[in-house]
Amino acid sequence: MNKGKIETYHFLKNEPKKRQFDIYDLATYHKLNSEHSAKPHSHSFYQIIWFKNNNGNHIIDFESYDIKEDRIFFIAKNQVHYFEKRSDYRGYLIHFNESFLLSNETDINFFLTYSIFNNKQEPYFQTPKILEHKLINYLSQIEDEVANANEFGNSGILSNLLKSMLLVIEREKRKNAEAKKKPDNSNYLKFRDLLENNFHKKWPVSDFAKALSISTKTLNSTVKSEIGITVSQSISDRIILEAKRKLIHSNSYINQIAFDLGFNDPYYFTKFFKKHVNCSPAEFRKSIS
Can you list the alpha helix ranges (DSSP code H) found in 147-265? Predict the structure, then answer.
């Protein structure tokens, strides 16, 4: 078996002087890129997919989600997803790099503070009719401003329009979750971001707590209050998710996957995986295939 990796696509990665944002007609874009978009892949950028029809499913990290009219999907960096092979998609597609929104110090915690791109349980927003016109209006303004690429303030205006649209969606999501409102969860959001960037290093819980300048007890209490599991379980879950991604969406040897995930001995990786999935990595790969 040849070693391989899930294909990761980049958006203007080596062109920092260009505007780090663009919007596309979904049908046109998918027609031109279906060869790539229909295969499991990830991005180093953020993607927003607004579907305007009810056909099919969208697959994100082993979960299949129904496509419904005015359902907006938020694909974060490093998430593995793909489109079904079909030609009847309608809607909008937005690509942007993190730097497009994090333009100054006041924005630095945007993706930590707001959960739109960090909701693995429900990575979409079903637009209520009462809000549809407002969000469409933002999209129309964005499309108009995209045409002014050489005009003064173009990137700033687009950045502000995108932020405003995301904030409106986040506000609506919070209204819907008001009954389940929890105390300040900034430490949890910071932990989640830290975990995303360091899960492969096999840090103990104490290292995460130290990086966040809080005690292990406080960190455990925060995480358990937010998602009902311990920090250790969160770390294990993230490692298992990445292991599944690599087992299914790449041709990498299992030994190589073990090393990539911080296991010095493939035997311990197999033992760890079997403990959490109830089968070996090889058995899991075979069952999905």
Answer: 154-176, 186-198, 205-211, 216-227, 231-249, 254-260
Q: What is the pLDDT of residues 34-80, one digit of tens each?
A: 888 888 888 889 999 999 998 889 999 878 899 999 999 999 887 88
Contacts of 110-117 spanning 24+ positions with Cβ under 8 A? 110/163, 111/193, 112/186, 112/189, 112/190, 112/192, 112/193, 113/186, 113/189, 114/166, 114/167, 114/170, 115/170, 115/173, 115/189, 116/74, 116/166, 116/169, 116/170, 116/173, 117/46, 117/74, 117/75, 117/76
Among 46, 25, 22, 10, residue whose Cα is nearest residue 149: 22
pTM of the model: 0.73
Q: Are 40 and 5 in contact (CB under 8 A)?
A: no
SS3 265: coil
| Contact assessment for residue 224 and residue 230, using Cβ atoms and an 8 Å cutoff | yes
pLDDT in tens, 233-269: 999 999 998 999 888 878 889 999 999 999 999 999 9
Is the distance from CB of 23 to CB of 138 less than 8 angstroms? no
C-alpha gyration radius of the chain:
20
User: Alpha carbon 152 to chain centroid distance?
Assistant: 32
Please report which helix (H) or strand (E) contains residue 94, including its range: strand 91-96
Contact status, residue 70 vs residue 127, Cβ threshold 8 Å: yes
